[in-house]
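Now read these lines:
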Amino acid sequence: MPYTDIATEDADPDAPEAFRLPLDHLPDRLDKVLAGLMPQHSRSRLQTWIEGGHVEVDGVVGKARTRVGPGALIRVWPQQAPEDLAFVPEDVAFRVVADAPDWIVVDKPAGLVTHPGAGNWHGTLLNGLLYRYPELARVARAGIVHRLDKDTSGLLVVARTETAQTQLVRQLQARTVKREYCALVHGALSGKGTVDAPIGRDSRVPVRMSSDRPVAPKPAITHYESLGVGRCGDVLLSRVLCRLETGRTHQIRVHMARLRHPLLGDTLYGGRQQAGAARQMLHARALGFDDPVSGRPCAFTAEPPDDFRRVLDGILWESHGDDRT
């Protein structure tokens, strides 16, 4: 849409962008007019600015449906998108298990998002890492090389240099990083086994991953071992040790549900919030990798957090394996 006679106020960096519409302009909705004036921005972003009161028409705050006619003066105060402000240091609580010149091992609490994303642009582990270790601002993704779901607790490694990040990613790709999880699942699961089922985005439910109807599936292998079966009232539960050979999004959650033993508390994949579980009962208990510079083997463990332990203690265990939870 051709616009002429556009005036821009730019002497003050905090001043709005101003547009004077030509006298032959045909009246139209503000959101459509603004899309023509500022095509470098998405329509959804422009609508957000309008809804936030950051656009005026002839000195009056506009609405998306405001009719804008010939000669109107439109002022816009551009706002930074949430993602533009995501990579900032914030004082976020988490425990550092160990650190070295090239890496940091973190025990992430349940409820903490690992990396900023839609709906969670602040208060993430990444923000906390930048606060405690400012040098991570020079490393892509603040050194994060693998993630844990928001409601999964436990260990992950963070690289402090680009070289270390590259080496750790290569170890993950070569499947030499040891990642061991303790889980509580529904039902009586016995013995041990392996689930080898590729995982991709669920073709019907975008927030889920799937091994039954995946979109663009990638190889996914989980080794599991039952450590005991117990009851909490009428609820039959099992303690399970899971070892990741690959690391796909929601991998253990999807694979346990595939076995018809969804994680306790994991309502997204068929689990139920019973026996005191308010989130999926999954904890990354052991992590092992080779130091990215020296090659020295490094191994760490972390006990389950209090909420996980309370659920464990409330279960009457009928059979026991070793206590690796």
Summary: The two ends are 64 Å apart (CA to CA). Helices lie at 30-37, 43-51, 125-132, 162-173, 251-258, 306-313. Residues 1-11 have pLDDT under 50 and may be disordered.
